[in-house]
Design brief:
- Its main location: membrane.
- It is found in: Cell membrane; Bacterial flagellum basal body.
- It holds the Pfam family Bac_export_1.
- InterPro entries: FliR, T3SS_IM_R.
- It is a multi-pass membrane protein.
- By secondary structure, the chain is mostly helical.
- It has one domain.
- The protein is built from 8 helices and 2 strands; from the N terminus they run H-H-H-H-E-E-H-H-H-H.
- A two-stranded antiparallel sheet has the order 1-2.
- A hairpin with a 6-residue loop joins strand 1 and strand 2.
- Helix 1 packs across helix 2, helix 4 runs antiparallel to helix 5 and helix 6 packs parallel to helix 8.
- The chain is elongated and about 80 Å long.
- The relative contact order is 0.14.
Length: about 260
């Protein structure tokens, strides 16, 4: 009996309770939280992983649904899942920051399109880099690592456990890593564009009658495209570092 004369199968109630943490993580996590993934697929995937969790961990859900302790336990589960997915989402925002820096210097910051990951308009260059980061994330089995940490999180944080204040502080501090990673990701191309701007500035002082808009903008676009083509292997290597740091931050959140 779960309150108000209602009854439910204990196994089904345990599965629903376990799915709260997993589903909350999938709502905000990269790849799983994309708007292109239908809601039934997310629910089915959360249920499948929930069955694995129940098979590996003896989880006892709250005795009653309509109780304050149950609502608090569900809120704690949702907070843990949201925190795990949010950390990865912060790491995945680094390419968008890098694209803003590069696109503004190249003169293509106004070029935008609909991002299939979140359904909102984003810079075209940032969308390209985000897709590359997503493909690298899938190639190194980052999605499987996230699922593994979700399953293992029930060992160190049983259902109903609230996140400590120190771990919430670490999540806030990790937000600064997105700006650092975005700056380092844009550094090779941004440095060349900065040198080009210095050259154009010296030309403007040497020849004030020179039409800088007719020379500077095409030069910035050409140098930016060439620099992206040359520096993209190094940028891809640093994207792997971003993925590793994001997964490490999730592991630190779970295991301390």
């Amino acid at each position: 009996m779960l309150g108000f004369g209602l009854a439910i199968e204990p196994q089904l109630w345990a599965l629903i309770f376990v799915m709260v943490r997993i589903g909350a993580a999938f709502v905000v996590a990269p790849v799983f939280g994309a708007v292109s993934i239908p809601l039934p697929v997310r629910v089915s995937l959360s249920g499948a992983i929930g069955l694995l969790v129940l098979a590996a961990h003896p989880i006892t859900p709250p005795a009653q649904i309509f109780a304050v302790t149950t609502f608090l336990a569900v809120a704690a589960e949702a907070l843990v899942g949201l925190a795990m997915g949010f950390i990865l989402q912060v790491a995945f925002s680094a390419p968008l920051i890098a694209s803003e820096l590069i696109g503004g210097s190249m003169g293509i910051g106004f070029a935008s399109s609909i991002d299939p990951q979140n359904g909102r308009s984003s810079p075209a260059l940032g969308q390209f880099m985000s897709i590359m980061l997503t493909l690298l994330f899938l190639s190194v089995d980052g999605h499987l690592v996230l699922v593994e940490m979700l399953v293992k999180s029930y060992d160190v944080m049983p259902p109903g456990t609230w996140l400590a204040v120190g771990r919430l502080r670490d999540i806030a501090f990790f937000g600064g890593y997105a700006f650092l990673a975005g700056l380092l990701l844009a550094l090779p191309v941004g440095f060349l564009l900065l040198c080009l701007n210095l050259i154009v500035g010296m030309l403007s002082r040497a020849a004030p009658a020179l039409n800088l808009f007719a020379i500077g903008l095409p030069a910035s676009l050409a140098v930016g495209v060439v620099a992206l083509a040359i520096a993209f292997p190094a940028m891809g290597d640093y994207m792997l570092v971003i993925i590793r740091e994001g997964l490490a931050a999730v592991q630190s959140l779970v295991f301390g």
